[in-house]
Amino acid sequence: RGGVPERAAVAGAYRAVADLLAAAGGDTYDERRQDVTQSLNTSYDLVLARRTRDHGRNPTLVRLLAQLNAVIPVVEAAPAAHQRGRPLPEAIPAVVRALADAVEQGRTDLPCPELPRPATPTERAVDDALRHAATVVREADPDPYNVDDRLGRPAALRIRIRRTARGALLSEASWRYGLRLALCIGIAQALVSLVVVDRSYWIALTVTFVLKPDFGSVFSRAVARGLGTAAGLVVAAAVLAEVPRGWWDVPVMMVLAALIPAFTAKGYAFQTAAITPVILLLSDLLNRQGIGLIRPRLVDSLIGCAIALIVGYLLWPESWHTRIGDRLAESVDAAARYVELAFGRDGDQVERVRSRRRLYRDLSAVRSEFQRALTEPPPTGTRAAAWWPLVVAVERIADATTAARVR
To answer: Are the beta carbons of 272 and 232 closer than 8 angstroms?
Structure first.
């Protein structure tokens, strides 16, 4: 399956761009643009990470990187098309989707794209970008020395290792997080050593899941996990009480397990509610305790949530005083630099494109940080809600600058 994940990622970026062009002039344009940013981030991360290991001479990765770079002018033309206020012809998104299929299948036998004749500067920009992308997709063997990967080339491996080690060993935030986690686990283990608790390992597991740093707000996760566990135990109690042991466990487990991915998309509380009955049914297969598993699971989970909330959150002010203001200020500065590059007389084309990609990537991270902050209790949640319109405004400034540059 060598190269399949990378091809799928690049094809996904093309499809996201097709959806963006289809949404131009409509109300869903902003959502589609965010999808494009995320898809481009994922694609560049995959392709460039693989290319550093292959020393940049793997023909498949060279071709994928060339195809990924070729879609950037189409992305830049999209804001200008959106600002026209009317939809693009259906043939234009269809051409991009056909290119996506060719990228995913590794085909180069594509006919020349049939596009409507452009009549305005914006339409000419879209037409030129699409024809350039089609030419690159149809090219079987791009010149590896003519593929510009400065849009996001990772640093050398030794540099990334050094940065990672420095971040882990010298970062104050990393040490504070490690101390918080160690303190919470230590208190959990001390508690179960002094008080008899059934299945005490559930307390430490709950603390670890709630404090996991990439899950968002510790406060909201602790509350959501407590509520989700309680809801899941209601379902588990009904199943353990009414479903006889034996082969009936198989269809019940199939139904409950199928609910996990569906509920995960709705939030952490829903995910916990879906996973809890599955875990309890698997535990019951081993120890045959039945309803007796309900109370220990509820008590242990609530104790773990309380430890994480009090010791791992309330006692550490920096955990609920986020840097949303600093992150947003940095994005505003990045937008200013992009405006300077876009309209400067001596602006480097590659540097301008790199600046735009960097700005949208930063804005994607800022949006995620704000969405996490919105789940925090006041004053952090209130401040994030007040500053949220500025995040949207910076994104629109970037779009307007790109559209003006294209025109």
So the answer is: yes
- What single string gives the DSSP state of each residue in 181-248? HHHHHHHHHHHHHHS--TTTHHHHHHHHHHH-GGGS-HHHHHHHHHHHHHHHHHHHHHHHHHSPSSTT
Q: Are 199 and 253 in contact (CB under 8 A)?
A: no
Decide if 221 contacts 233 (C-beta within 8 A): no
Cβ count near 298 (within 10 Å)? 17
Per the CB < 8 A criterion, the answer to whether 403 and 78 are in contact is no
CB 329 within 8 A of CB 335: no
Handedness of CA 264, 266, 268, 270 (dihedral sign): negative
With CA atoms as reference, report the closest residue to 267 among 211, 313, 233, 221: 221
> DSSP per residue over 152-182, as a string?
TPPPPHHHHHHHHHHHHHH-HHHHHHHHHHH
Taking only the tens place, the pLDDT of each residue in 147-192 is 554 444 555 667 767 777 777 777 776 788 888 899 999 999 999 8
Query: Contact, 257 vs 274, CB < 8 A?
Result: no
Name the token pair of 21.
């062009």
List of residues 6+ apart from 380 with CB closer than 8 A: 320, 321, 322, 324, 373
Task: Identify the burial level of 235 via C-beta atoms within 10 angstroms of its C-beta, where 0-12 means exposed, 13-18 middle and 19 or more buried.
Answer: middle
Distance, in Å, from the CA atom of 81 to the CA atom of 338, rounded to the nearest integer, reads 20
Model pTM? 0.67
Asked if 210 and 301 count as a contact pair (C-beta separation under 8 A), the reply is no
CA torsion sign for 268, 269, 274, 280 is: positive
Length of the chain: 407
- Do residues 219 and 320 lie in contact, with contact meaning Cβ atoms separated by under 8 Å? yes
Percent of residues, the chain, with pLDDT higher than 70: 89
Q: Rounded to the nearest 10 degrees, what angle do helices 349-373 and 29-53 cross at?
A: 110
Which band of pLDDT confidence, cut at 50, 70 and 90, is reported for residue 228? very high
